[in-house]
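Structure (tokenized):
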């Protein structure tokens, strides 16, 4: 399979990481375009043969496959302003959007697809190294483009899978696993402020615990990785947790209760939570919400 020449519209964190990774894997990146000429130049300087172009159309004209690594809300409008040709491809990297935003390109005869690395890219300096080992959700309008995208993912060390079904549901799962974890740790670290520490100190203390939990999930999986008072059926400890939260951090009670409720069936599947203890836990949690 001939490797396509690549263009990138949007030299942000994700676009830059993908461009550098794919160039390093032997793909030719011909053109970089974006709102920030400085960012485009900084990226092009890392890619042999890449040209910074001020006209988005030149990116499409010089490449076989163009990545639109731009915010979700502008994918459709940018795609609609460009002239596409049969045999070319327009690909976005949104985790939530399907192929609909690329309809304007498809109508003109281009193949369209989605190439979403299931990874977080908060730190630009480490974005490239995070791609290897990540899952890549692939959608494509045709088999040839799907094969190209899967090969790209494998070339940079990723694990591609074809996404069929509700893209929004897939992305909601990603949000819960990543963004919600940040919000949860913000709450957990915030509790340390009532103990006389800063939130930053609380986070530093909690992170080894979080890493250990992630390692357990990787090594053992679900439900085996679950530990803690609900796994043990320790109703007294859960009661003490709730009492402390009600007194010192009442805003966190509902969150604790909801997560505890969702932990009970995991502990039941694990085989460590006896039915009578599960019933006592549910009753305790119901009472906590009523209060």
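Design, position by position:
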């Amino acid at each position: 399979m001939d490797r396509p020449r690549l263009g990138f519209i949007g030299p942000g964190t994700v676009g830059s990481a993908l461009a550098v990774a794919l160039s390093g894997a032997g793909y030719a990146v011909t053109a970089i375009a974006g709102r920030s000429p400085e960012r485009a130049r900084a990226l092009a300087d890392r890619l042999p043969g890449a040209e910074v172009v001020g006209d988005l159309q030149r990116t499409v004209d010089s490449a076989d496959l163009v990545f639109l690594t731009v915010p979700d809300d502008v994918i459709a409008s940018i795609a609609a302003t460009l002239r596409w040709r049969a045999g070319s491809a327009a690909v976005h990297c949104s985790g939530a959007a399907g192929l609909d935003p690329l309809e304007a390109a498809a109508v003109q005869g281009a193949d369209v697809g989605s190439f979403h690395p299931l990874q977080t890219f908060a730190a630009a300096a480490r974005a490239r190294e995070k791609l290897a080992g990540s899952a890549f959700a692939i959608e494509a309008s045709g088999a040839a483009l799907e094969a190209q995208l899967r090969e790209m993912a494998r070339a940079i060390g990723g694990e591609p899978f074809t996404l069929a079904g509700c893209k929004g549901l897939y992305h909601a799962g990603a949000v819960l696993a990543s963004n919600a974890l940040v919000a949860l740790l913000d709450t957990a670290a915030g509790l340390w402020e009532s103990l006389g520490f800063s939130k930053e100190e609380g986070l530093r203390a909690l992170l080894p615990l979080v890493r250990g939990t992630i390692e357990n999930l990787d090594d053992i999986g679900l439900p085996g990785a679950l530990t803690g008072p609900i796994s043990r059926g320790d109703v007294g400890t859960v009661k003490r947790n709730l009492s402390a939260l009600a007194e010192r951090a009442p805003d966190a009670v509902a969150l604790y209760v909801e997560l505890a409720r969702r932990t009970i069936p995991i502990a039941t599947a694990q085989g460590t939570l006896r039915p009578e203890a599960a019933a006592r836990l549910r009753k305790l949690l119901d009472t906590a919400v009523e209060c």
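Reviewer-requested clarification: The chain has two domains: 6-165, 175-290. DSSP finds 14 helices and eight strands in the chain.
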